[in-house]
Hints:
The protein is mainly alpha-helical.
Amino acid sequence: MPQGKLCNRQPIKTDEQLKLTLADKSGKQYYAEMEQLDVDTNALWATIQKTMKSRTKTWLEICAHCGLCADSCFLYQVNDCVPEQVPSYKIQSTLGHIVKKKGQVDNAFMRHCMEVAWSQCTCCNRCGMYCPHGIDMGVMFSYLRGLLYSQGFVPWELKIGSGMHRVYRAQMDVTTEDWVETCEWMAEETEEEWPGLTIPVDKQDADIMYTCNAREPKHYPEDLAEAAILFHVAGTNWTVPSEGWEQTSLSMFAGDWECCKDNVNHVYDAIERLNPARVTGTECGHAHRATVIEGPYWAGREDGLPPKPYIHYVEWLAEALREGKLKIDPAKRIKEPVTLQDSCNYVRNQGLKDVTREIISYIVEPGYFVEMAPNKEHNYCCGGGGGFNGIGMYREQRNVALRKKMDQILDTGCKLVIAPCHNCWDAIRDLEEEYEIGIRWSFLKPLIIGMLDVPEGMRVEW
């Protein structure tokens, strides 16, 4: 079968096709069609010849097969250290094989590559820190995902997620009207307790433009309200755009590079339109990577930077605390053992390890913060990154992957985990649900609101 009705080489671009694919519960028909999907080997090889840069070619050629990357990979560790989970083996036996065969591979091999690419690597990039040649299998797996997506071999949920971005310009079916109404609703709800609070939409020349994760207006609108409270208390001149507010990129997880470029350009267009002094995004690691770290290159920006300075939410929080715009009531500081999850995407990939610990110094009583081991840029992935959290057919493998983070948390002795990243938050939530180790987890926003020293008259006490 050249291409299926649901599983094919075309991106989802219409609401009709999106709903049709969504109606296929758990992707039953989608995966059945995938088993019959032809590989366009000539197109695959042509894509490789056009897109594979010298860095990737060199990495594939200079790997010494020394195995030093093995212990760097948490998936190797939690899967009984089997050779098939060594990062160099995983990439050489998939992408390396496709290149050696000049794209002449069959359906069964592409389905095998799909499983390896999405269930045996989260693209956390930790392996690149320990390779003596600086080879980064995570970067190469991202490239492999793009090749697989172009041929239709992508998990059902990520085909849908990328389609959501194309149809709704968000990873979920949140329209512009839905988003603006949610902002108005949260402002009305929150103003009762915080008089004068607003969520300004499309305000020109603000000091801060705020972007977020579509899961927030869809499922956690209180997160938007919490951001508004902190901006309000800090006296920030801020705004959200009516369009270009969605910062995430499931298309990055899917390997849909054309859609990645479209996503980030939509955000950048909002920046150009509203002309804020700076932009900050929510507590989400991959969203920051997509819009700030990778995004400028997808958008073809020669300086490698967004249109305006674009900081992660932890950077804004640390600055507000440092400058006294947000003040913590010492009596309300955390006085129990607490640990911190370092997000791969803004700690390992951008170096924001000290910023989060600066925030910890304000909100945790001295002596109660316990580091994970290892930590900072050496920390392990949460176990659900790179799209792993959301792929149903790999849920069993994902649950095994969570064990590394579980062991790290248990070793700290802490019952509270601060996780300033959506994927990490979700993974730790699922970890507790699966293994019942008796922990709690939280973003930074609600913790800080609970311990604010609020200026008199700013808050109505009930």
